Amino acid sequence: MQSPLLQHFAQTPIQDRMSNHGAKMAKAMMQPGQDLLARAGSMVAYTGLVDFNPNPPQIAGMVRSWATGEGVPLMVCTGQGELYLADYGKDVVILQLAGEALSVNGKNILAFDASLQWGIERVKGVSMLSGMGMFNVVLRGSGWVALTSKGTPVVLDTREAPTFVDTDALVAFTEGLRVQPKRTARLGSLFGRGSGEAFQLGFSGQGLVVVQPSEDARPTLQVRG
Q1: Which among 32, 61, 91, 220 could disulfide-bond with 149, CB atoms 3.0 to 4.6 Å apart, if both were Cys?
Q2: Please, how many CA atoms are within 13 Å of residue 99, restricted to the half-sphere of its CB?
Q3: 3-state class of 147 per DSSP?
């Protein structure tokens, strides 16, 4: 007879390619020919036959372009079975893209289908004091994505009203939204926790913005114009 404790924490059936196991773990159904790109070191358990390659050729060239520090070390997961992923107890958010594009802070990437197109792209309209841009990982196509959040995130619908986000708390946003930096005059000298109170990103249009309840500091931003 299985104890209530084991029943509560036992493996749950996987119905989708990727889903949550509790709030802080992602689980993926691995099948031959359906590779997964995951944050290196994020595997916590698996069943079946799953292999991990931390240095695949398709990633090597991209790694060399991550001079901005906004990239993420990835490994290719292949095989058949159930794969469990986590990142130091952070909350995990599972999304399914259907011909869409998502711009994600590289620090918040946990895993995504290898069939998705992806790359490092500059967030338009924002520059750092060094003159370099603020860069995100952009995922395009149809497939599953697992993101991490330091705490339970809020998902804001930008159709309801223009939305403004502390850049240090921004996890991801739908590509195609109008992005407009906003400067809050003189607040930079009043607050000591990063740049968010002085600089925000405004989003408008039809889409979603994911925000975490923690300020994961990026390099200091400057608004052009």
Answers
A1: 91
A2: 0
A3: strand
